[in-house]
Amino acid sequence: MLLNSYQQEFIEAGCDEAGRGCLAGPVFAAAVILPKDFYLEGLNDSKKLTHRQRENLRPLIEKQAIAWAVATVDHEEIDQINILNASFLAMHRAIEKLSIQPQYLSIDGNRFKTYPQIPHSCIVKGDGKYLNIAAASILAKTHRDEFMTKLGIDYPQYNWQQNKGYPTIAHRKAVIANGLSPFHRKTFTISDPQLRLPFEQEL
User: Fold this and answer.
1) For residue 168, with 0-12 CB atoms within 10 Å meaning exposed, 13-18 middle and 19 or more buried, which class applies?
2) Does a structural domain hold residue 202?
3) Residue 112 and residue 185 in one domain
4) By three-state DSSP, how is residue 13 classified?
5) Domain containing residue 52
6) Is 192 annotated as a binding-site member?
7) Which is more confident, 181 or 192?
8) Is 17 annotated as a binding residue?
9) What's the DSSP call for residue 100?
């Protein structure tokens, strides 16, 4: 069973990101402050849930959280500052948007750039340990999936409705066949040597 938060003394926001490993689109991050007695059946690491489960949990989290926020860093910024820094920046932007300023931050992962004047702890696989990080993981994931699905309407050749910009073999083949869209991250290696396509080249 997941614990509510990493510590109990201060108002804590759980933070997570989605889209870090994608070839296209923004990286999204969410910050969530939950009530002390919060419990939501089925809430867990977003990667352990189905698309339908995440979509069902999202409005419940948004309704029951004390505060929540979602923020993005787009593909152009990612290319400029690299994806690790972009992930940190997206989380900073989400924290900044919260209607209540947290006194402590619990961050999914092993690295984070300190947010001014708020202490934090990095928790590896924190989205499977703490409800506030799990909630943040679901909001970041569902908001990003929604964004990529809508964006994909104008770029059907990449099938973003299905792959959401992640580096599936089909997505890589589509890039090789059609070239980069305006929303692809140009600093990412799009092609995959394992595809063994004779016309494949580094994009």
Assistant:
1) middle
2) no
3) no
4) strand
5) 12-152
6) no
7) 181
8) yes
9) S
How many C-beta neighbours within 10 Å does residue 101 have? 13
Alpha-carbon distance of 95 to 114, in angstroms, equals 12
In a domain, 43, yes or no: yes
Token readout for 19 is 């889209």
The distance of Cα 78 from the centroid of its chain, to the nearest Å, equals 14
Spatial CB neighbours of 174, under 8 Å, sequence gap ≥ 6: 157, 158, 159
Residues 18-55 have pLDDT tens digits of: 999 999 999 999 999 999 999 999 998 888 899 999 99
Q: Is 78 helix (H, G, I), strand (E, B) or coil?
A: helix
CA nearest neighbour of 73 among 153, 185, 159, 188: 185
Measured CA distances, 138 to 161, 182, 190, 193, 195 (Å)? 18, 27, 26, 32, 32
| pLDDT tens-place string over residues 46-101 | 888 999 999 999 999 999 999 999 999 999 999 999 999 999 999 999 999 999 99
The reply, when asked if residue 108 is annotated as ligand binding, is yes
Euclidean distance between CA atoms 190 and 71, whole angstroms: 25
